Amino acid sequence: MAKFLEERKLTVEKPCCTLPVSVYANHVPLLRDFDVSREAGGAVAALTRTFRGIKPNPFDKIALSFEPSTEFAIVNAISVEDEAK
Q1: Which end of the chain is more exposed for a tag (fewer CB within 10 A), N or C?
Q2: What are 51-75's pLDDT values in tens digits?
Q3: Residue 66: half-sphere exposure toward Cβ, Cα within 13 Å
């Protein structure tokens, strides 16, 4: 499960609340050009996305990567839960 929240302060220079990002797990795209504010209905609105069937890589790890489309995103927390439980 991933919870996304766009918290940027809007300014005259950046009046729009768009900050698209692509999210990958083990190099497999989960979200492409994901715009949190647009999907959540505005800035400072939390949005949860759940991804199922993600398997560890050969090193028994899940490698997450976040690729910005315009600016870097800040990740504050990630929750990983075992689907078998």
Answers
A1: C
A2: 888 889 999 999 999 898 877 767 7
A3: 15
